[in-house]
Amino acid sequence: MEPVLKLKDICKEYRRGGAPFFAVDHASLEVEPGGYVNIIGRSGSGKSTLLNIAAGMLPPTSGVAELGGVSLTGKDDAELSRIRNDGIGFIPQGVSALPALTVLENVMLPFCLYPHDGDGEGYARLLLDRFGVADLADAWPGELSGGELRRVLIARALINRPQIVIADEPTSDLDVRSTRDVMEAFAKLNADGTTLLIVSHDLDALKYGKRVYTMSEGRLAEGNRLAL
Ligand SMILES: Nc1ncnc2c1ncn2[C@@H]1O[C@H](COP(=O)(O)OP(=O)(O)OP(=O)(O)O)[C@@H](O)[C@H]1O
Question: Which ranges carry the ABC transporter domain (predicted)?
Answer without folding.
Answer: 5-228
